[in-house]
Amino acid sequence: MKNVQKNKIKDIFLNYGVILILYFVVQLFLKSGSVSSLMKGLLVPLCIYSILAISLNLVVGISGELSLGHAGFMCVGAFFSASCSMLLKGSSLPPMLIFFIALCIGAISAGFFGFLIGIPVLRLKGDYLAIVTLAFGEIIKNIINALYFGVDKNGWHFSLKDGTAVALGEGGKWIIKGAQGITGTPKYSNFTVGIILLLLSMLFIQHFIHSRTGRAVMAIRDNRIAAESIALPASKLKLLCFTISAAIAGIAGVLYAHNLSSLQALPKNFGYNQSIMILVFVVLGGIGNMRGSILAAVVLTLLPELLRSLNDYRMLIYAVVLIVMMLFTSAPGFIAFRENILHRLFRKEVNA
Amino acid sequence: MKKQLSMVLAALMAASLVACGGASGEKKATEAESKANAESSGAEKSGLTWKIGGQGPLTGGAAVYGNAVVNGAEIAIDEINANGGINGYQIEYKKADDEHDQEKAINAYNSLKDWGMQFLVGPTTSAPAIAVGTEAEGDNMFLLSPSGSAVEVTAPKNVFRVCFSDPAQGTKSAEYIGSHNLGKKIGIIYDSSDVYSSGIHDSFVAEAPKQGLEVVADEQFTADSNKDFSTQLQKMKDSGAELVFLPFYYSEAALVLTQANTMGFKPTFFGCDGMDGILNVENFDVSLAEGLMLLTPFAADAKDDLTVNFVKNYKEKYKETPIQFAADAYDAVYAIKAAVEKAGLTPDQSVSDLGTAMEKAMTEISLDGLTGTGMKWNEAGDVDKEPKAVIIKDGAYVSAE
């Protein structure tokens, strides 16, 4: 028993260790100036997708539910936080404080939407969460595309019709301009902030998983009837887990919003495909395996960019790699082969 | 077991990161060296070249634009190189795909920067242009977008454009329809989830009453519902619209025209420059586009020497008729040439110095190009030129005049 716990702790710290080592290696190369601009530009997206992957893994791997709307929560986090920092931009607050406030607002708003959706849906058994979150992701994207939000001396103005319905007074400015979204968001995200947020999300999720509550959630996942028979509140615990996951997806959205100067809710960045992409990270990385999710997110984000020189063939190769990775992680034959190789490689260690 | 495996993989990844970092680092070093050599000896002047990047969606839904832009720019660069280059230096050209996505656009821009780009002819589409413009402002890289038409594109001081802005297009379209008596009752269908489309729509609706036009139906769709237009078309038909204004991209427009035809609804259709490219849509019955009008500054059938020559070269090289985007990019390259010559720049200057000099020189030049004569730029980065309309006759673009 003691041994098992020791292994677990080792496992947890290994996760942080790997991230920190990678961070310092990258920092070293940044300092020596040998990292290409392309790589520099990719560092923050890598953090964003890693955070998204572990947040979805909490839902898919730990609570055993399927969410197809994580891009929607990311979208909520992104737009709420970007609106917040646009409103505070002119004030005398230091940038990091504005970012912190925006971060809190982004996480809370996304968590709140997750909570709202979870209340009715998580009472049901089956795949209802997948259906509802799928719809949520699409709805939120369309609402934001139709939303006009401006601010002037008389306060805030909203319209869901078109821009001309909002008559902004003198000195007024647009925060969200319909399909054009938010233009001019301050760039607060950088690699260090991204890594800190990734570590914090990781810390939170890992501690949640290994806490009493987390174990209870996993018990419900494995056998709901047995868990309920020992008086575990199934719906409540699942709701808690889902809300945390949505809030963390919101944090990824905050990073996203403050990384590019313009923010639009396009099908490409906040649509259904993005949600599926996050799910792909989780499935390829191994359901319930946080380190694997991060790895998959990093590899699958880097790959299309590293293959850039191949032009038209890169999406073809990307697809092939995706299939190979899937076989490698999930096909029984491959698993046996892999274990076999590893067993031979590390036989000494195993014997000892 | 899994632990070790993931450790190995993580190590591999770190190695790959380092590897690509290292490679480009070396390249930079050698470049810097060669620059230093060139400067010191002076005799090796011929080794220096201008490095111009091109960027746009080369794959995906908007690929027609991106490809037209990089092809158009390539034609101009080949011509200039054949005539001795800019200020005696040859031009190197490299294109990058941004998939009409902001995040990818930044990646494309960064990869071009790694290559050593000095000027960028791009990005092609608005949303990427806004994102890249702000990113490039930090580097003070000079950007000349051929077709990024959203107002915000030229907000950074280093970004200029060759095309009209969206509101200008909406206003000019209304003016054109009004002054040429193309119809009094106007129906509009637009993509409310797209910046370009809603930008034109808003300014068109604002201008229409001034031109004596009546907007009888105003319908929208979004990027998620851009396959079935029967509801919108039915409303157009019921409202008795004589002219239907379609301010969006050609891929949806092809569907609108096909569906209007099956409904037996035949008003005049009028589009903006996004409509340009409709004749290249695969599996689209070109005869349906007969009589379609679009506001664009370029018509491939124009008889002036410049256009005839450009169209001939383009057809020879790429086996298709160039669209406005190609012409915009062609003009963009010549505008860069004119500005560089005006300011007397050389490629050994830093990107930031070049940017500052170009921002000043651009406002001083006047260019006779494919998309207009006497084109002039203001400090905001916007161009002043006359709009032209084009009509589709017998499966080809013909000037409407």
UniProtKB/TrEMBL annotation, chain A:
Superkingdom: Bacteria
GO cellular component: plasma membrane
Keyword Transmembrane: yes
Cellular compartments annotated: Cell membrane
Membrane topology listed for this record: Multi-pass membrane protein
InterPro entries, per database record: ABC_transp_permease, LivM-like
Pfam family, one: BPD_transp_2
Transmembrane segments: 12-30, 42-62, 97-122, 128-151, 191-209, 237-257, 278-303, 315-337
GO molecular function, one term: branched-chain amino acid transmembrane transporter activity
Keywords: Cell membrane, Membrane, Transmembrane, Transmembrane helix
Name the record gives this protein: Branched-chain amino acid transport system permease protein
The organism of origin for this protein: Oribacterium sinus
From TrEMBL, chain B:
PROSITE patterns xref list: PROKAR_LIPOPROTEIN
InterPro entries, A to Z: BCAA_transport, Leu-bd, Leu_Ile_Val-bd, Peripla_BP_I
GO biological process: amino acid transport
Pfam families, per database record: Peripla_BP_6
Signal sequence range: 1-19
Family assignment from sequence similarity: Belongs to the leucine-binding protein family.
UniProt-recorded name of the protein: Branched-chain amino acid transport system substrate-binding protein
